[in-house]
Each structure stands twice: as C-alpha cells, then as structure tokens.
Amino acid sequence: MKWLYRLISACMAFLFAAPLVWMLVVSIKEEGMKIITVLDWFKPPYSLDVYKEILTGTKLTAWIGNSLLVAVLVMVLTVSVAALAGFALSKIPFRYRTFMFFVVLAGLLIPGEATIIPLYQVAKDMDLLNSYQGLIIPALASPVAVIVLKSFFDGIPNDLLESVQIDGGGTWRIFFRIVLPLTRPALASMAILTFIGSWNNFLWPFLSITDDNLFTLPMGIPTLMSQYSEDYVKPMVINAIASIPIIILFVTFERQIVKGISMSGIKG
Amino acid sequence: MRMKKMRADVQALMFLLPFLVVYVLFTIWPMIKGVEMTFYKWTLIKKMDFIGLDNYRQVLQDREVWEALWHSAIFVVLTTPTMIVLSISLALIANRQSVLQKFYRSIFFIPSVLSVAVASYLGLFVFQPYTGLVNSILHLIQMLPGDKEIFWLTERSLAWIVITLITLWWTVGFNFILHLSAIQEIPDEIYEAAKLDGANDNQIFWRITLPYLTPITKTIMMLQIIASFKVFMQIYIITGGGPLDQTRPIIQLIYQTGFRKNNLGYAATMSYLLFVILLVLSALQYWVNNRKGAEDR
C-alpha cells in the first residue's frame, strides 16, 4: 500500500510541477526550434537571448514595476486603514459601535464584481481612470481585513491596555506601542494576502487602464501574447519573467503565507 | 462622564475615518450610483436618456443573460466538488511524514501565486493541439495516434474541462493549505486510540479525518461557490468565452455590454441581477456557518 501512496503522491507533484518546468525549459531554448515529439522540447541548444530581448525590447519590466508598486502600496495602505478601523471597533467604547460593526460586516456581502460598472463611472467622474491613484485607492477599503484584524485585537486583554492608560498613555500610544506589536503576525499575514490579491487583480485594471505605460502585469501579458502566437519561446520567456519574482517572494515568505492562510481561514 | 464619552466618539471617528472615506466613496456610492444608471440608456461618454424600467424588463427576457448566468453556474458545479476532493487529497499527501513533505507543500501551492494571466496562458499552451504538452505526451505514450490531434478548445465540453483543470491547478493551493492545517490540528491521541481499537487506514480516514474536516470543508465550499460564480479572467484568456459564446460567464457579458456595446446602463442592470444571486449565496453561507457554530456549542 505504501508504494501506491508514494506513486500517487509523485504523480500529483509531477502534474503540478510539469507546466512550470516546461515553461522554464522552453524559455531557455533557441527560437524557431522544430518540435516533432515531446522530447524535442527538452533537447539543447539552450540560450538566454530571448530573455534579453524581452527584457529590453518590451515594456514587461515596467509592467512588473507597476504591479509591484501598486501591490506594495495597496498592501501597506490597506493594512494601515484596516488596523485603524479594527482598533476602533475592538477597543474604543464609542456610541454606535455595534452599528458601525454591522456597516463593515455588510461590506462583506457586497461583491466588487457586481458594482464594477458604477465604480467605473464614479472613478471617471473623479478623474481617477488611467492613473496609479485609480489603481490603488479604490482597493483600500477591505471589510475582510477590518473584521479579521478586529478579531485579533479582541484577543488582547483590556487590563493590559488599562494599565498603560493609568501610566498616562493615550489611545494612539496604546495602538502603536501595544496593539500593533502584539498582533504583528496577524498584520504580516494580512499584508501578504493583500499583496497576492493585488498582484493577481485583473478586472479593475483591465477596465480602468488604457494607457499601456500604466498596465499591470496581468493586463500587459495578454497584450504581448497577442503578438507572438507562432513560436513558444517568447511567450514562455514572458511567463517566466512574470513568475520568477513572485515565486522567489513566495519561497522567502512561505512560512508567513502558510500561517496567514491557515490563521485567517479566508481566501486571498 | 459625558465628556469622556464624547472623547471616545471623536477618537473612534479618527480611527475609522480613513476606512469610511474609501468605503463610502468606492463601495457604497457606486452601489447607489448604479441604481441611477439602471434607469438610463447610459453610454461611455455619458449621453443619457431616461428609459425608466426598460433595462429591467429587457434583462429578464434577455436569453444571452440567462445563458451567461447558466455558464457561470456550470463553472460552479464543475469546480466546487473537484476542488474539495483535490484539496483534501493534496492535504493528505503533504501531511504524510516524509522527507518530501516540504516539497509537496510548496509545489501544490506555488501555482496559486502566479498571476492569472500567466496561469491561463501556460494552460493554454499546455493544451494547444500539435505543439502543446498534453497532446505531445499523449502522442509519446501512444494514447493518441501520431496523425490525430485533440482540439481542446473548439468543443464545448472539452473547453470546460480545460478551464476547470487550469482553474484547479491555479487555485487549489489556498484551500489545500486550509485543509492541511485543519488535518494537523487533529489530536494525535485520537488516531492512537483508533489504532489500538484496530481501525485500519480506511476507517481512520472516513471516521476520523473526514468528520474533523467538515467545518472547514463547508466554509471552503461556500467560498468556492461564491468565488466561482464571479469567474471571468481565466475563461476570458483561455477560450474568450468561446466556442460560440458557449463558455461565456456573466461577468464577461457585463463587460462586453458595458464597454464593447457601449451600454453601461444595461450592464449595470445585469450586475444587479448578479448581485442578487451573490447576496443569496452569501446569506446561504452565513446560514451554513451559523449552523456550524450551533453544532459546535
């Protein structure tokens, strides 16, 4: 039985890895190779010329830069905005607190996809189309992040906060000196999930951006692909260049990512 | 006392303000604005004619709309059960004590961090006739005669299979991690006790592991249904909605109506139909989760 289990495991791993391995192998082949059988994909000669060509001859690197810039800013700002709001909902005893909580909770029910058309009109009225601001600002209100962070803040005992208050610390001090440091793992996980979400976001950039200097990666790739349909090498180089940074990022932060997903129990 | 309350209110407002501003401007306001748009023939350059309830009347009778909704529903039905089975299987594989444990965990998750465009194009090339990886391998192992090709995207049912496989490959990672961490939380003593009672691997899986996974599986199922109903990008890249619009999901139709056919008002009306469906699904999810909570207590 054990060998059967191992065989199935190995097959699954092969299925998951195969497209990526194939992408990398084809991406280092020379252009215009002849393929008659599948083995031809894996035969030399190899060369990195196409990488050079794509990196210098297209806007791909600029688009990766745009994606990174947008994802990093969305990540930092979303988590900041959500941490502030989550703190108020969790630790400040203000009037209408329950009401506000339900207002945020209601946001979980509103799917962005269903309001995308009016959002386009609103962004247009506010002159946010075709701009970095337009890519970033509408993404910042994340009810999920607020609710998740609030539930983590709820876990901090109020006695601890009161002791700081007695020592003369104000609300801001409590927020920065106690609440944020104590929930750092939750903040980091939320940040990473937000980053991946923004990195993969397609619909809003697709609708709001027409200037190809402002394209993010998910939009830029289809634009490039439509030019190279015959040969596989260039498309695979494009795919490889687009994936390598994010895979490196994943390998570096694997533990936090895995922890973040399992801790929050939500999909990114 | 009153002063203190006031201070708390002001402070709370300060903390909530950044969120509220963005939330109102880019979630609440578009929702209201959208209602207005549904009463107009509203185009991209904003030339409007008030047409009352015409958009609503039209949307209920529009065959394209119902077909697109149906396609989104097909996608839900295809991806949800397969996703759950795959996710649990991968979690079991990665949970086995072995030197490859870390490798399995990474390899099952890595596709999820790829950009949707990369995942879709990679899948597209893998399933290409003549030169794609799948057909080439089928030729190599002689499952497919050398002079025959499978045209994966020209037939409706095959196209759905390709879309489903690529989606599973690309997105199973998140659910797999959720299942894996749920499996790892099952106390060892329970397994040990079961083994002492003479339970075999099969019984342990069906009687212990699977019941323990039920709460997270329910959550994953509901999230998956909602997420799948909102599918757009991978289908748009892989088949473009084809062949003959037979895989076109509702979001693609909304996009095409608004931006290609230049009718934002009608597109907004369609998206409210979608909204109602998603709202029902979310309410269902809430109900499922609450019932789960009740059982736990």
TrEMBL record, chain A:
Gene3D superfamilies: MetI-like. The chain crosses the membrane at residues 63-87, 99-120, 132-153, 174-196, 232-253. GO terms for biological process: transmembrane transport. GO terms for cellular component: plasma membrane. InterPro entries: MetI-like (IPR000515), MetI-like_sf (IPR035906). It is found in: Cell membrane. It is a multi-pass membrane protein. Keywords: Cell membrane, Membrane, Transmembrane, Transmembrane helix, Transport. It comes from the Bacteria. The keyword Transmembrane applies. SUPFAM superfamilies: MetI-like. Residues 64-259 form the ABC transmembrane type-1 domain. Belongs to the binding-protein-dependent transport system permease family. This is Sugar ABC transporter permease. It comes from Paenibacillus wynnii.
UniProtKB/TrEMBL annotation, chain B:
It is found in: Cell membrane. CDD domains: TM_PBP2 (cd06261). The chain crosses the membrane at residues 12-32, 69-94, 106-127, 158-178, 264-288. Residues 69-285 form the ABC transmembrane type-1 domain. Keywords: Cell membrane, Membrane, Transmembrane, Transmembrane helix, Transport. Belongs to the binding-protein-dependent transport system permease family. This is Sugar ABC transporter permease. The lineage of its organism: Bacteria, Bacillati, Bacillota, Bacilli, Bacillales.
